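Risk mitigation, structural track. In case the binding assays with magnesium ion fail to produce interpretable data, a predicted complex structure has been prepared as a fallback.
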Amino acid sequence: MSPILESRGLTKTFGAVTAARDISLSIEEDTVVGLIGGNGAGKTTFLNLVTGYLKPTAGTVRFQGRDITGMAPRRITRLGICRSFQIPQVFDTLTAYENLLVGLGIVSMGRKAFVGSNLGTARPEAVADEMLERFHLREYRDEPASVLPEGVRKLLDIAMALAVKPAILLLDEPTSGVSADEKFSLMDLVLGAIRADKVTVLFVEHDMDIVRRYTQRILAFYDGKVIADGDSATVLSNPEVRRLVVGEPAPEEGAAPC
Ligand SMILES: Nc1ncnc2c1ncn2[C@@H]1O[C@H](COP(=O)(O)OP(=O)(O)OP(=O)(O)O)[C@@H](O)[C@H]1O
Ligand SMILES: [Mg+2]
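Fallback model:
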């Protein structure tokens, strides 16, 4: 399998804070990858660097073999990398349907490049309705986003990202703000909708039960660095990951096994 996304030596400093330290990794096409790490580990910074919301201090990002380092977010979106946000970026005064149209409209400002490569001949209105269907949002179609429950706003934000037909979708904490008993059904719905198109997924998640269930591979970040990268079971049983990410107390020196 060829990598769809690759970072080499990716580094970002904010004054005295280093939010990304020499991050080198690659994501294979057609996989679902989890990104874990405690608060402030650099997960959102990494997504911001890949999607052009932040410019790296050093290092490169390649997408489908092409250097996209430092490109503007809109250009990166048009190439095929889309994202959803930790706090849903929806327009409160617009309905769910209108939000989808705005998302499609913004992207289609670069109409030639985008429509030609991704949307094809599909009409934005039809794509918006298809996304509402796929994400079970039909009943909210004409409701303003301001009145929608948080879980629904999350779904709408993800639907807006998928509507523009990306090759890879980066989801920043898709289940945050959603109650524990709703998380699994939300992920079933989200990944079902996304993977129907075989879109590659990288998602940030704090709940280890969710990452264990839905990923083939996990990247673990700590203090801006990758501290583990591999198949999900191996990374989740890695002692450093358990101590620094999962938050398990280190076994006491010389403690007798129980
Ligand atoms: N724009 C910024 N200016 C200054 N510091 C920043 C900025 N963005 C992030 N940081 C700092 O970079 C570090 C990494 O932040 P980041 O938001 O990437 O963490 P995260 O892993 O997404 O955390 P969380 O789980 O809380 O969302 C933190 O110390 C944060 O305070
Ligand atoms: Mg974050």
